Structure formats: structure tokens, C-alpha cells
Amino acid sequence: MKLLVIEDDADLRRQLVTGLTGGGYTVEEASDGEEGLYLGSEFPYDLAIIDLGLPKLSGVEVIRKLRKANINFPIIILTARGDWQDKVEGLEAGADDYLVKPFHMEELMARLNALLRRAAGHATPMLVFGPVTLDSSGRNVFVNDEPVKLTSYEYRTLEYLMLNAGKVISKTELTEHLYHQDFDRDSNVLEVFIRRLRQKLDPDQVLQPIATVRGLGYRFDLASGDSLSK
């Protein structure tokens, strides 16, 4: 999952990027509202974290302009303690949730995970499709209740495919949502990750959980096996 952080406080921005990257997310950052609006308008993200007190263009204006442009990724706003008017204005502009500074990284992670699941139509951290289970809270994957060891890139690829199960995801979309803008976009690299995932999830080629749709991309093809994943 790729996140956008728009925060002018260099120390806080560095803490956010470090914490989110350590949590397995791909993170891109901006230090002012104009740069943040440009990134949010031009590149695909799964969620944005936006401080309201930004230079050049306020966080509220960034949100309004993004929503006016029909850019609908979830947004968490950051506000100073006691500024309830800012919270209301940010939410009315189109934000989905807010956090008051100072906050714990664990709370931010819990809230953004919940928003990401909700945006994909899932209510719980457990995604269950047949014998394949992905626990997004612990970033663990199981097949027939047996743990499967994945690299960070492999996990990100599988999570995105499972959150969009049944949909055809192009190689371009998969690359743009999972990796930094300067990631090696050679399609052969992505094909390596897909091949490894297939080998680890389905060594006997019985499940065939990831289908290749020729000329279009990939689709996670197992049916949901648990109503809790809805």
C-alpha cells in the first residue's frame, strides 16, 4: 500500500515516514500544501495523512481540491490539541478521520489500517479466501493454517491483490500502488514477485490463487471463505 504524508514539521514528518515504512508501507512525502496537492493529484495513493496547518496551501484547501477533483482515497488529518473547529472543518472538507497531536504511532497505524480495510470493503483485519488467510494487523499469511514466509514486496503484492479480489489489476496499477515512483518498473521484476507468490502459496499448483489475465494483468481468484472478511 502506498501512502502520502503531507506535514511541514520536519521532525514529525521524519518520524511518520520512518514508522510507516517500518510498518511495511511505501511512503511518499511533501512539506507544504502545494507540493502535497500536486503529488495527491498526479499519483495514485491508497491513503493520505495531512496536517491542517501547512504553508503555501492549508490542509483543508488541499483536501477540498482533491475531493473536488474526485480523488477519493481515505484521508486522516492531523490537528493541534483543542482546535475542534479545525477538526470539523477538515472533516467537512472531505477527511475521513483525525488524530490530535501528539499521538502514538500505534494509534495512527490502527486507524489507517481500519480506513484501508473499509475502503476495500472489509470490516476486519482477517482476509479469508478459501485456505488462504491474510492477517493485516500482524502482516501474516497462512495457507491451511500453516504460516507462509513472504518478503516485504511479496506481502505487499499479495495484500493488494487480496483486497481487490476478483478484480483484474494491471501491472501498472500494481506497481504504482505498491512501490516508490523511482521503483524499477521493468515488468519482469513484478513477474518474479508473482511467480514467487504462486510457489509459496500453492507449491502443488492445486489452488491457483493468482490468475494471469493475458494482456490485462493479474486477478486473485479464490472465493471468500469467511463471512468475517466481508
Structural commentary:
With 230 residues, the chain is of the alpha/beta class. It has 2 domains: 118 residues, Rossmann fold (3-Layer(aba) Sandwich); 104 residues, Arc Repressor Mutant, subunit A, CATH 1.10.10. The protein is built from 8 helices and 11 strands. Strand 7 and strand 8 form a beta hairpin. Helix 3 packs parallel to helix 4. 33% of the residues are buried. The C terminus is likely disordered.
Biggest sheet features: 5 strands, parallel
Distance between the termini: 19 Å
Instruction: Write the CATH fold name of the largest domain.
Output: Rossmann fold
With strands numbered from the N-terminus, the spatial order across the biggest sheet is 2-1-3-4-5
Helical run tally: 8
- Structurally, how many domains make up the residues? 2
User: In CATH's first tier, which class of the largest domain applies?
Assistant: Alpha Beta
Work out the number of β strands: 11
Strand-residue proportion: 15-25%
Q: Overall mean pLDDT score?
A: 87
Radius of gyration: 18 Å
CATH superfamily of the largest domain: Response regulator
Going by CATH, the architecture of the largest domain would be 3-Layer(aba) Sandwich
Principal-axis shape equals elongated
Low-confidence stretches: 226-230
Which structural class fits the helix and strand makeup?
alpha/beta
- Along the chain, the helix and strand elements come as EHEHEHEHEHEEEEHHHEE
